[in-house]
Structures are given as C-alpha cells and as structure tokens.
Design a protein that fits this description.
Layout (H helix, E strand, L loop, with lengths): L5 E7 H10 L1 E2 L3 H6 L2 E2 L3 H11 L6 E7 L7 E5 L5 E5 L3 E2 L3 E7 L15
Antiparallel strand pairs: 1-4, 2-7, 3-6, 4-8, 5-6
Length: 117
C-alpha cells in the first residue's frame, strides 16, 4: 500500500467519451482482459505511456482521487517490482479530478500534463 492520493489512467479519447456518456469507466480492452483497471502513479506514468502507448495519438491523461475507491483499489507488484494501482471495479466518474489531452512532442514522446505533486 502507498500513500498516493492521485493516480492516473492513460486512455484513448474515444474510450473516455464512452465513459462520460455512461458516467462510468469500465476500462480499456487490456483492463477488461485482465479483470482490473490499470493505473499509474505520477512517477510511473511516463514509462507507462512509452511502453504501452508508443506512437498513439488522441490520448487523455485522467487523474483519479484514491480516497473513496476503498478495497477495490489494490497496490500490486508489476513492472520493475514497483507497486502499481489496480482498480478491481468500474470507475465512477465522480472520483475523477480531471481529464487532459496528452500532446506528443516532435520527438514522438508523450508530454504528460501532470500537476505538480
């Protein structure tokens, strides 16, 4: 368990639009396949973008408040033996702090619009 109060989801804009229409985010294809919604901390998000979203455009970075996610949020060992946040339920959009576009730099690297931690 960590004391992170904000976690981040990188998702295609179309998937997020669907979530807004339904007022709940059930997850992207990989989340549905794995049985939980993958999140990253602020420190993990850039590597997640590079590893799983290379050359993808029209992405959003979604910030989520962890304080009301309860026992459905699990911190589990993943890449580089680090603890990653995994949500074992759908995400009620009332827990979303913001969703921002992720621009891509001229070098092809995503520029994540993270708030100062």
């Amino acid at each position: 368990m960590t004391n992170e109060t904000t976690i981040y989801k990188i998702t295609p804009r179309a998937a997020w639009k669907e979530a807004e229409d339904q007022e709940v985010f059930k997850g992207a294809a990989i989340d549905l396949e794995d049985g939980y919604i993958h999140f990253s901390t602020a420190q993990q998000a850039s590597e997640t973008a590079a590893k799983h979203f290379k050359n993808e455009e029209d992405l959003l970075l979604v910030a989520v408040d962890t304080s009301q996610l309860g026992d459905a949020l699990k911190w589990e060992v993943s890449r580089n033996n680090a603890l990653f946040p995994h949500l074992y339920s759908s995400l009620d959009l009332k827990h979303v702090l913001w969703a921002r576009p992720i621009p891509m730099g001229n070098d092809g690297v995503h520029i994540l619009p993270l708030e100062a931690e």
